[in-house]
């Protein structure tokens, strides 16, 4: 009986050591490097959740890339909602700081994205709560860069950073004054 108690004690001790090493490593990884997230809603259709309410895509979010605010036009990013800090939203980066963007329903027809901000929109215009509703977003609200669809298995793929041609930012203020697209 004493022999079996010694084995249990050693096993428990080894388990505890492994647990107290693994948990901080896992938490650090999920906080600093990457995590997975389920995408809900129709705002990013057809890129994400093309089946509507029947399915939810699960994406890999790379925290490392946004840590230094390294985002490009066309990237799909997760960010803290500017209107509800308890909620995270996922949108496509349309414009970077200094870009002039032609808005779709914003109070101003053209907006110059201020320093330290980006302009984000959902791919499903009219079904998205995005910069057209709340304006440019601070880079400090970035949470992750969506790089891959992990679930469902038939949709497993790398997400490309593609900016729809009709959403290219206007490069100069002169184009705004003369009404050029």
Automatic annotation (TrEMBL):
Active site: 43, 91
Recorded topology in the membrane: Single-pass membrane protein
Subcellular locations according to the entry: Mitochondrion inner membrane
EC supergroup of this enzyme: hydrolase
InterPro entries named among the record's database cross-references: IMP2, LexA/Signal_pep-like_sf, Pept_S26A_signal_pept_1, Pept_S26A_signal_pept_1_CS, Peptidase_S26
E.C. no: 3.4.21.-
Annotated GO MF terms: serine-type endopeptidase activity
GO BP, sorted A to Z: protein processing involved in protein targeting to mitochondrion; signal peptide processing
PANTHER family cross-referenced by the UniProt entry: MITOCHONDRIAL INNER MEMBRANE PROTEASE SUBUNIT 2
Protein name (Swiss-Prot/TrEMBL): Mitochondrial inner membrane protease subunit
Organism annotation: Tursiops truncatus (Atlantic bottle-nosed dolphin)
């Amino acid at each position: 009986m004493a022999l079996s108690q010694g084995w249990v004690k050693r096993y428990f001790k080894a388990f505890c050591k492994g647990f107290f090493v693994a948990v901080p490593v896992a938490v650090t990884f999920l906080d600093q490097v990457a995590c997975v997230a389920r995408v809900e809603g129709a705002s990013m259709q057809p890129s994400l959740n093309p089946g509507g309410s029947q399915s939810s895509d699960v994406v890999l979010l790379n925290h490392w890339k946004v840590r230094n605010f390294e985002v490009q036009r066309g990237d799909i990013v997760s960010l803290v909602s500017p209107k509800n800090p308890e909620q995270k939203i996922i949108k496509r980066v349309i414009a970077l700081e200094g870009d002039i963007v032609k808005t779709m329903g914003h109070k101003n027809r053209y907006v110059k994205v201020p320093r330290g901000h980006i302009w984000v929109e959902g791919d499903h215009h009219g079904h998205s709560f995005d910069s057209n509703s709340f304006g440019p977003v601070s880079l400090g609200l970035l949470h992750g860069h969506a790089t891959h669809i992990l679930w469902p298995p038939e949709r497993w793929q790398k997400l490309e950073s593609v900016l729809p041609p009709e959403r290219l930012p206007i490069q100069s203020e002169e184009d705004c004054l003369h009404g050029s697209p």
